[in-house]
Design brief:
Elements lengths: L1 H18 L8 E11 L5 E12 L4 E12 L5 E7 L7 E2 L4 E2 L1 E3 L8 E7 L7 E3 L3 E6 L4 E5 L2
Antiparallel strand pairs: 1-2, 2-3, 3-8, 3-9, 4-5, 4-6, 4-10, 7-8, 10-11
Length: 147
Amino acid sequence: MRRMISTALVASVVAVLIGSSPASAAPTVDRRVGTCTHARGGGCAPSISVEYWYAKGAKTRRVSWVYTGTNSKTRRSARWMYRKPGARTYKVASGWKQGRLEPARNGSISFTWASWGKGHHTGAAYPVGTSFCAEFKGGKRVCTKVK
């Protein structure tokens, strides 16, 4: 009986502590930005999508996922890079990564894609206004900016 009471007491104390968060903790905002360079015949060649999150009022954005894709009938390597506000050049964030080929199905267009990151509120912090770009070997660079 004593063990049941102490377990219930501990559980209730933990519930109260978890439920009470500091007033200064700001809610987080999840966003996704992207750019698509429209190709003849449909699809994007290339495209980029950046998923990021931040606490309301924060001056930085945490990038948790970067995706790029392009119309292609063969596998191609891709990489992504970023440029912080005021910087002159882009910094390569990852080396070349072999893309994954998705064959055409039911009249669709075949394409190659690559992604980096884990999602779910992870990732490095970048200042507001940072520009993110992706490129496939031998292809155009496509960019977007976090707000």
